[in-house]
Design a protein that fits this description.
- This protein has 230 residues and is an alpha+beta fold.
- The chain has a single domain, classed as Distorted Sandwich (Glucose Permease (Domain IIA)), CATH 2.70.70.10.
- Helix content is 24%, strand content 21%.
- It has four helices and 14 strands.
- The radius of gyration is 17 Å and the shape is globular.
- It binds zinc ion.
- The site of zinc ion has 4 residues, from loops.
Amino acid sequence: MRPLIAIIAVAALAAIATMASVARSGPVALPGLPSPTPKVWEWPSAAPTEQPMRAHPHLLSGFVIPVGGVDVPAEEQYLPNSERAYRAGYHEGIDFPVTAGAPVLAAKSGTILRIDGAFTDWTAADEQKAFDAALALGYTPSATLDQIRGRQVWIDHGDGIVTRYAHLSAVAPLRVGDAVTQGQVIGAVGSSGYPEGGPHLHLEIRVGDDFYGDGLPLPQLRYAISVAFR
Ligand SMILES: [Zn+2]
């Protein structure tokens, strides 16, 4: 899809999607949401304790699921830390398999940090070349990860917290520095950067240079994610 057409398509979707989002989940500014300042990592009594826990600076909360009609996926392969053997790496986000073109919503209020209004996908040959190089290295270089994420929007939430929305088919007519509110439409689901994965939204919650959940054993990871979205 050409960028201009893509932007128009998203703009047309935006009004409908906003209405649908409000109708589905009620007011976006939920009462009782914690402050956006990350809490110190602390485990309520309900937290899993059967496995040693890697030290993690923050337990985050107050995000909404950035696509309609789905919950956080249960399958480990869609969660952070799952292996990606084809590029000798690990997943750094949460995958939400949804229909292509579905509106993508800001998971939390913030400021646009990156928005790929103009975007050219890599060729299948360049993609394969990069995967071969990653396999030879034994890890996925960050530039390759960026190409795999395809057309992206990044939102800065302050305090080192950034959300990344990847594989988009289109982006909303927004610019770097624009304020966005939680639930606002910022783009549309696609499969740019990694067509083999089919249409899905890849969401990364970045905490400084790290990704949320990095290295956590699965029970703690599920717990940390459930706290983020409740
Ligand atoms: Zn992903």
